[in-house]
Amino acid sequence: MKLSFLPEDKGWLCENCQIKMEPGLTELHYQGNVFKVELLLCPSCDAVLIAEDLAVGRMLEVEKLLEDK
């Protein structure tokens, strides 16, 4: 199952490369768990954009669930 968390297209640029970020598959690791998710990535340096609403919303919920295990 692939999870996709792509923010609204605002022409996001990589801060390091100044290249437009593109959707791509990446892995997020937390407490020994690995999650494959589609996020915006820099095609040059592989930097990942995690939108604030995702970080303080869904990702925080998942962290709390995993910590309660």
How would you describe this protein?
With 69 residues, the protein is α+β, with helices and mostly antiparallel strands. The chain has a single domain (3-67), classed as Roll (Ubiquitin-like (UB roll)). Helix content is 22%, strand content 32%. It has two helices and four strands. The protein has helices at 52-56, 58-67; strands spanning 3-4, 22-30, 33-41, 48-49. Strands 1, 2, 3 and 4 form a four-stranded mixed sheet that branches. A hairpin with a 2-residue loop joins strand 2 and strand 3 (33-41). It is elongated.
Contiguous runs where pLDDT drops below 50 for at least 5 residues:
none
Mean model confidence by pLDDT: 86
Q: What's the helix-strand series?
A: EEEEHH
Proportion of residues in β-strands: 25-35%
In CATH terms, what is the fold-level topology? Ubiquitin-like (UB roll)
CATH architecture: Roll
Q: How many strands, which pairing sense, and closed or not: the largest β-sheet?
A: 4 strands, mixed
What is the helix tally?
Answer: 2
Overall radius of gyration: 13 Å
Helix content: 10-25%
Number of strands: 4
Question: What is the first-to-last residue Cα distance?
Answer: 22 Å
Quick one: CATH class? Alpha Beta
How many domains? The number is: 1
Overall shape: elongated
